[in-house]
Amino acid sequence: MSSTPDRQHPPLVLASSSPFRRSLLERLGLDFDCDSPEIDEQARPGETPQQLVLRLAREKAAAVARRHPGALVIGSDQVAVTPEGEVLGKPGARDAAVRQLQASSGRSVTFLTGLCLLNSETGRHQSGCERFTVHFRTLRDAVIERYVDSEQPFNCAGSFKSEGLGIVLFKALEGRDPNALIGLPLIMLTDFLAAEGLVLPR
């Protein structure tokens, strides 16, 4: 939760247990709560990556909104996609992280981050998808293994933490909002909040 005491706006709830998203939202200087949505995040047959992140962002917000009447609820979801359309999930363990980074070496991976802001009082929702592309350096196996052992990015799609040492793996970053790469597109969120009357800075 943010330490900012000002509650002169509708209650704000982040539908996530992610410490990365919580840290990003704290940058806006707003008081907010976190509530884990605990939904099924499996893709549906024939669903594109963009459709998946938009649906899950909305479902996360809706699941949490039921427990927070009168709140503005933020839902977000992210996937990493190769040029061939393969979705890269969270590796979960060291060997899988090493394999993911080996496959990404010298290539580009696009991150799609879905965002939804749901007003639980009015039922109004705003949603969108932010794209951000990472262009990887050509990476030696030894570099990959040292990185994975150092930062252990096992719960990160794409097997890196761009806000940390992961930056050394890239030769270029391409996109409107680097916060989207970490998991919460703040530029888009700021627009959504303004449409609900919450204009920043406060």
What CATH first level would be assigned? Alpha Beta
CATH architecture annotation name: Alpha-Beta Complex
Summarize the main sheet: 7 strands, mixed
What is the tally of beta strands? 7
Question: What distance lies between the first and last C-alpha atoms, to the nearest angstrom?
Answer: 17 Å
Q: How many distinct folded domains?
A: 1
Average pLDDT, rounded to a whole number, is 93
Number of H/I helices: 6
Strand content: 15-25%
Task: List strands and helices in order, with pairings.
Layout (H helix, E strand, L loop, with lengths): L11 E3 L4 H8 L6 E2 L14 H17 L6 E10 L5 E2 L5 H11 L3 E12 L5 E12 L4 H11 L18 E6 L2 H5 L3 H10 L7
Parallel strand pairs: 1-2, 1-3
Antiparallel strand pairs: 3-4, 3-5, 5-6, 6-7
Description:
This protein is α/β, with parallel strands linked by helices. It has a single domain (12-195), classed as Maf protein (Alpha-Beta Complex), CATH 3.90.950.10. It contains 6 helices and 7 strands. The protein has helices at residues 19-26, 49-65, 94-104, 141-151, 178-182, 186-195; strands at 12-14, 33-34, 72-81, 87-88, 108-119, 125-136, 170-175. Strands 1, 2, 3, 4, 5, 6 and 7 form a 7-stranded mixed beta sheet that branches. Strand 5 and strand 6 (125-136) form a beta hairpin. Helix 3 (94-104) packs across helix 4 (141-151). The protein starts with 11 loop residues before the first strand and ends in a 7-residue tail after the last helix. Mean pLDDT is 93; it is low at 1-7.
